[in-house]
Specification:
3 helices, alpha+beta, two-stranded antiparallel ribbon, single chain
Length: 99
């Protein structure tokens, strides 16, 4: 999820049911993968949002209104990423972490 957020993408419905566990590591050939070193995949991107796309969708002709709308979109996405991280902590019982 953090890699998605670094790309300014939100998944939109982060729940345990949308995370798959598979044998890993993915860098190993399939015959050498094991659940002792699991890999995880996030699925169901039906509600995903991409910040770059949302910013290009701002069509205001007035420059000041465009700046205001872009700032609102960025603020909304930032709030969505924070909410998604909170959901992850709650869904996976992860204590607060700081990078």
């Amino acid at each position: 999820m953090l890699r998605l957020h670094a790309l300014k993408i939100t998944q939109g419905s982060f729940y345990v049911r949308n995370v798959l566990i598979q044998p890993g590591p993915l860098s190993a050939p399939p015959s050498q993968r094991t659940l002792r070193i699991p890999s995880f995949r996030i699925i169901d991107f039906g509600r995903a949002r991409v910040l770059a796309y949302l910013l290009t969708a701002v069509k205001e002709t007035d420059e000041e209104k465009r700046k205001t709308e872009r700032a609102r979109v960025i603020s909304d996405r930032w709030a969505a990423m924070q909410y998604e991280e909170q959901q992850a902590r709650e869904q996976f019982l992860i204590e607060m972490f700081d990078f």
